[in-house]
């Protein structure tokens, strides 16, 4: 199927497009994980562990969620500046 045909089918929303997708090779852009190491004081790790246990998730999960929430909040309040390095 040509891209234009697929786009038209999607835009019309009259047919299910899932059968036209090759889901086994699909991936989300910029979602490939990268490993980083971050050192925190012991009290921060203890606090993270307590909060993670309280809500029933892992330490890594709570760190990811909180960082993403903060980055999204910062992006909302930030005015783009094309002169800033990325």
Please give a structural write-up.
- It is a single chain.
- Helices cover 50% and strands 0% of the residues.
- With 86 residues, the chain is mainly alpha-helical.
- Helix 2 (42-55) packs across helix 3.
- The protein has helices at residues 3-12, 42-55, 59-77.
- It comes from Vreelandella neptunia.
- This is CopG family transcriptional regulator.
Total helical segments: 3
Helix content: 40-55%
User: Main β-sheet, in a few words?
Assistant: none
**Number of separate strands:** 0
What's the mean pLDDT score? 86
Strand content: under 5%
SS-derived structural category: mainly alpha
Q: Distance N terminus to C terminus? A: 37 Å
State the low-pLDDT regions, or none: none
What is the succession of H and E elements? HHH
Radius of gyration: 21 Å
Shape: elongated
């Amino acid at each position: 199927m040509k891209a234009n045909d697929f786009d038209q089918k999607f835009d019309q929303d009259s047919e299910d497009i899932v059968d036209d997708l090759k889901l086994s090779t699909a991936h989300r852009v910029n979602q490939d994980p990268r490993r980083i190491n971050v050192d925190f004081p012991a009290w921060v790790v203890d606090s993270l562990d307590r909060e993670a246990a309280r809500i029933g998730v892992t330490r890594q999960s709570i760190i990811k969620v909180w960082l993403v929430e903060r980055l999204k909040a910062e992006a909302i309040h930030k005015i783009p500046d094309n002169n800033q390095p990325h």
